[in-house]
Specification:
4 domains; three-stranded mixed sheet; alpha/beta; elongated; single chain; Trypsin Inhibitor V, Chain A; 6 helices
């Protein structure tokens, strides 16, 4: 009886010892953990760190475990190799306000590549500063992704008034501007002195903008009905706030009207004489000369025969035909 009990106890102990010495363990959940933290956990549990692959998903922060093999909660022998897939991404920094060179260095340091820099005259606080970027700040992107920048490229126009035109040519081009048209105005200032400019001093304009100047001169360069003559021969001066008007010319008398009237009058007079002479006796006996103030025609105060209605109508008709 004792021997049977002893054997039973020994068998149970052996089974318990075998179970306690089992080499399999449960694989931990590593997904979502930082890759370095996950590797430490693998070693602590008696497993081995296997292959670590990088992958871009855009769903997790860079360096986080996306997947693992074997999967979590499965049992594996001690020393089993666990493989990991780790997120590899770059969070796009905010480059606004940086100059183009600083932004390019930052992009290169993040394993990104600068693809394009577009220059636009925005007129912000600092010329040459980054005012736009693609991808946007805070966006997760894959390593070696292309980045495009927009740089605020403008020029602040200097004040040239009071300067000699010939002396500012070099300064103007060095400022990123170009010479525009020049206009002249009679002034007591020395000839060639800049009286005004367009655009005004302090204006923020695109690079290579042409600046126009109004210059002093002792006398008008050429006579012009519309004001001072310009260099290119045009008469419009943009510095004049009130445009000069040209008085309308008096209409010239139509030569055809004058000729028509003269010919018409001559013909109508000739025909009128025929009409006035018609019906009179050809051989009228001479009579006494009229006294001063008398007339051969009643109702008149001179010796000119009045026009009959027929003669008036004929004169008007002929005049209209010859105009």
């Amino acid at each position: 009886m004792k021997s049977s009990f002893t054997l039973t106890v020994i068998g149970a102990a052996l089974i318990s010892g075998l179970a306690g010495c089992s080499s399999q363990k449960e694989v931990p959940l590593l997904e979502g953990m930082d890759a370095k933290e996950a590797q430490t956990r693998i070693v602590q549990l008696g497993f081995q760190v296997g292959r670590i692959d990088n992958e871009f998903s855009g769903q997790k922060d860079c360096g986080k475990v996306l997947r693992q093999q074997p999967a979590a909660s499965t049992r594996a022998d001690k020393g089993t190799t666990i493989h990991l897939v780790v997120e590899e991404s770059v969070t796009m920094p905010d480059l606004s306000g940086m100059d183009a060179d600083s932004a390019a260095r930052t992009i290169g340091g993040l394993s990104l590549r600068l693809q394009k820099v577009e220059k636009k005259a925005i007129g912000g606080q600092t010329p040459g500063a980054v005012v736009g970027q693609v991808p946007a700040a805070g966006e997760r992107i894959a390593p070696r992704s292309a980045v495009n920048l927009v740089v605020d490229d403008y020029v602040v126009v200097p004040d040239f008034t009071g300067e000699a035109y010939d002396s500012i040519r070099k300064t103007l081009t060095q400022s990123g501007l170009t010479l525009g048209k020049k206009y002249y105005k009679v002034s007591t200032e020395k000839t060639g002195t800049i009286l005004d400019q367009i655009p005004d001093a302090g204006a923020k304009v695109a690079r290579d903008t042409a600046v126009q100047f109004e210059l002093s001169q002792a006398a008008p360069a050429t006579a012009s009905r519309n004001g001072a003559a310009t260099e290119d021969g045009r008469n419009h001066n943009p510095f004049e706030t009130t445009p000069t008007t040209v008085p309308d010319k008096k209409p010239k008398k139509d030569i055809g009207d004058a000729v028509g009237n003269a010919v018409g009058n001559a013909i109508s007079n000739a025909i009128g004489e025929l009409i006035d002479g018609k019906g009179k006796p050809k051989n009228k006996p001479p009579g006494p000369s009229p006294e001063p103030g008398d007339s051969d025609y009643s109702g008149t105060t001179n010796n000119v025969a009045p026009k009959t209605p027929a003669k008036k109508g004929l004169e008007g008709f002929i005049g209209r035909l010859l105009k």
